[in-house]
């Protein structure tokens, strides 16, 4: 009867400008889709060149190489008898568009440019592309000669159109268009489109996956239809981790779910669905049918091809499933771990070096690396040849098979405890015990000699010797002495990262991991160019509150009992002298605020778009049971003073895994000045007026 259609979507770990690797992964996804009987294959946004090309999109080379990859796809027998929907940039009449190129049997059917561009948060699409603003309008696109020679076509349709096959009608959305208030699928569905496709470049944020799933399901709940979503996965060259979650939905219910986090470079979902289920679902929605009778029709590109087979009565169709969401603790365990693996293998380094202080932040970073080792061993056990090949290259052993996460961790993670006279034996013991339990190669050293030499140089030049405040020194002297210790640790971290493997008779170098959390970065509670300065930071976008929950998760799931004492100890920098052998300095006392308060400030400042006055107005209600308005005012003023005084530190912040929408990352997410008038005189007067 021709009613059961088989469609495929995928999540691909594409890499910006890796045209050869990207082409190979596209081919693999097409092969898998065809082997499972699919007649239509959807890929992620800009999959040919990679989503994260940034200003490389300006280069004609990027356009040229994208068309060269398209040429390979068009002329290959692998793409025959399946509609292929791929993403690439296209220059039309000297305007650059983010496009889907849909082809079948060496013929391009349609080039569909993106209508709504993502331009908030980490996204800057309007910098490189122009949105297609001609609704339901199609123009002629003149193909490059290399494509003409393969297709025999001089021009192809370019614009806002849909495909009409022998058995159904398909319409494309691209990523942001699903999130827009006037999503194209609404009018396309009213115009009889039964299958909606969405190619995405959507990155991971803690607790975001459910929003994407809800949007996809709601797209067809009101209007009926089949919705297919493809997404990028992995680290394609910057701070973002694209978290897959390819999915297929019908009439408001999920029928196929892809993984959110995995080390598989290619993941393909295939579903067989009954078109009559869409038609019968729509038949009884009278409001939809009334609206459909008045809709402005889309241009249709006729395709002499069917997604179904004539004799399909015996073909089984997919049933709805319940989406399984990860907990935030699982997301922290898996997302940054997969990001680290991509960074490690693609940077061609031999492992990581982590300054391990025995505190929550560096311990959480160590646990993420340990989780990465678990994921690698699991992937190899499941037969992932790519992961095995990468692991062998990283450890420089062509016969190696990673089976035990602890053993693999010893090969790829070096931890280093850098003690000073201000360090306690407790933190030293905690760091050593955790290193033993995760299996890392652990080094303990003392930095006092280096600190004395550096301070000694200053004393020789100036004739003055700074003292800690507990010994009668000023706050300036004390802070300078703390910073010297912190910065020497950074210098030693890089020295050991470059030469530790050399000293052990092994090739390669190590990537230095930072471990400043998102709250400390926001407050500026870190020394500029200390151990927060590293190559990458897997926890730089995660709050202290979430990290504590993650540590508890690791205790329970990885049996890392060393973390119990780390959890119970008050966070401390250990940069000031001990008192009776015990730590007297604590982070929250130094900061003048708690980590819980910092998380609230961060969300209000970035997500709530609150300046000092608006933040005060919100907090007098949120905290009305625990603080007076005058106390709230004092807290808000203190936060904004400290934030603005320290904002310059964000300009050198180590590239961090993006996990929170209140990240203070200065690179492209949180764009602010770094030289403020830190008195905030006008703003604070407005607060004082309300307090009085």
UniProtKB/TrEMBL annotation:
GO terms for molecular function: ATP binding; glutaminase activity; NAD+ synthase (glutamine-hydrolyzing) activity. It is an enzyme of class 6 (ligase). Its EC number is 6.3.5.1. GO terms for cellular component: cytosol. Keywords: ATP-binding, Ligase, NAD, Nucleotide-binding. One of its GO terms (biological process) is 'de novo' NAD+ biosynthetic process from L-tryptophan. InterPro entries: C-N_Hydrolase (IPR003010), C-N_Hydrolase_sf (IPR036526), Gln-dep_NAD_synthase (IPR014445), NAD/GMP_synthase (IPR022310), NAD_synthase (IPR003694), Rossmann-like_a/b/a_fold (IPR014729). It comes from the Eukaryota. Transmembrane segments: none annotated. Pathway: Cofactor biosynthesis; NAD(+) biosynthesis; NAD(+) from deamido-NAD(+) (L-Gln route): step 1/1. Residues 5-275 form the CN hydrolase domain. Homohexamer. In the C-terminal section; belongs to the NAD synthetase family. HAMAP family: NadE_glutamine_dep. This is Glutamine-dependent NAD(+) synthetase. It comes from Quiscalus mexicanus (Great-tailed grackle).
């Amino acid at each position: 009867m021709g009613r059961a259609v088989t469609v495929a979507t995928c999540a691909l770990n594409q890499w910006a400008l890796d045209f050869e690797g990207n082409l190979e992964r596209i081919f693999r996804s097409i092969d898998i889709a065809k082997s499972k009987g699919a007649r239509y294959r959807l890929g992620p946004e800009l999959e040919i060149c990679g989503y994260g090309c940034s200003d490389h999109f300006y280069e004609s080379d990027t356009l040229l190489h994208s068309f060269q990859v398209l040429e390979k796809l068009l002329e290959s027998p692998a793409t025959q008898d399946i509609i292929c929907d791929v993403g690439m940039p296209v220059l039309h009449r000297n305007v650059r568009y983010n496009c889907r190129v849909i082809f079948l049997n060496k013929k391009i059917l349609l080039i569909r440019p993106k209508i709504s561009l993502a331009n908030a948060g980490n996204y800057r699409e309007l910098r490189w592309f122009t949105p297609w603003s001609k609704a339901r309008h199609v123009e002629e696109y003149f193909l490059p000669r290399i494509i003409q020679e393969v297709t025999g076509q001089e021009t192809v349709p370019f614009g806002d159109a849909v495909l009409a096959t022998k058995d159904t009608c398909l319409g494309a959305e691209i990523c942001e268009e699903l999130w827009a208030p006037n999503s194209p699928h609404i009018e396309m569905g009213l115009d009889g489109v039964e299958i909606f496709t969405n190619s995405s470049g959507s990155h991971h944020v803690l607790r975001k996956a459910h929003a994407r799933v809800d949007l996809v399901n709601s797209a067809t709940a009101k209007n009926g239809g089949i919705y297919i979503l493809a997404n990028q996965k992995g680290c394609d060259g910057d701070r973002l981790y694209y978290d897959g979650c390819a999915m297929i939905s019908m009439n408001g219910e999920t029928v196929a779910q892809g993984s959110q986090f995995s080390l598989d470079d290619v993941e393909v979902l295939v579903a067989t669905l009954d078109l009559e289920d869409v038609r019968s679902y729509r038949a009884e929605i009278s409001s939809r049918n009334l609206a459909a009778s008045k809709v402005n029709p889309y241009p249709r590109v006729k395709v002499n091809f069917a997604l179904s087979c004539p004799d399909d009565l015996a073909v089984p169709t997919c049933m709805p499933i319940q989406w399984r969401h990860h907990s935030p603790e699982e997301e922290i365990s898996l997302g940054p771990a997969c990001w680290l693996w991509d960074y490690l293998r693609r940077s061609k380094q031999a492992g990581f070096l982590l300054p391990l202080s025995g505190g929550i932040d560096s311990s959480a970073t160590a646990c993420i690396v340990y989780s990465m080792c678990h994921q690698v061993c699991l992937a190899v056990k499941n037969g992932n040849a790519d992961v095995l090949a990468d692991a062998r290259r990283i450890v420089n052993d062509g016969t190696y098979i990673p089976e035990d996460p602890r053993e693999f961790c010893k090969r790829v993670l070096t931890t280093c405890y850098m003690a000073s006279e201000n360090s306690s034996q407790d933190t030293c013991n905690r760091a050593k015990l955790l290193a033993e339990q995760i299996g890392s190669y652990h080094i303990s050293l003392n930095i006092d000699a280096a600190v004395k030499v550096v301070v000694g140089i200053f004393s020789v030049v100036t004739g003055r010797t700074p003292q800690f405040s507990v010994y009668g020194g000023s706050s300036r002297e004390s802070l300078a002495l703390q910073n010297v210790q912190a910065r020497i640790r950074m210098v030693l971290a890089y020295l050991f990262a470059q030469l530790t493997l050399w000293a052990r008779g092994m090739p390669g170098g190590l990537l230095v991991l930072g471990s400043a959390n998102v709250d400390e970065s926001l407050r500026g509670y870190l020394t500029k160019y200390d151990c927060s300065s590293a190559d990458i930071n897997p926890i730089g976008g995660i709050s202290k509150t979430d990290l504590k929950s993650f540590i508890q998760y690791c205790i329970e799931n990885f049996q890392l009992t060393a973390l119990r004492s780390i959890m119970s100890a008050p966070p401390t920098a250990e940069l000031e002298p001990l008192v009776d052998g015990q730590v007297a300095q604590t982070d929250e006392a130094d900061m003048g605020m708690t980590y819980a308060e910092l998380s609230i400030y961060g969300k209000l400042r970035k997500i709530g778009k609150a300046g000092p006055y608006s933040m005060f107005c919100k907090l007098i209600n949120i905290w009305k049971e625990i603080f007076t308005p005058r106390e709230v005012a004092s807290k808000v003023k203190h936060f904004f003073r400290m934030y603005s005084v320290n904002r310059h530190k964000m300009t050198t912040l180590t590239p961090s895994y993006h996990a929170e929408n209140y990240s203070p990352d200065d690179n492209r997410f949180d764009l602010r000045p770094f030289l403020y008038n830190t008195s905030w005189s006008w703003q604070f007067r407005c607060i004082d007026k309300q307090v009085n």
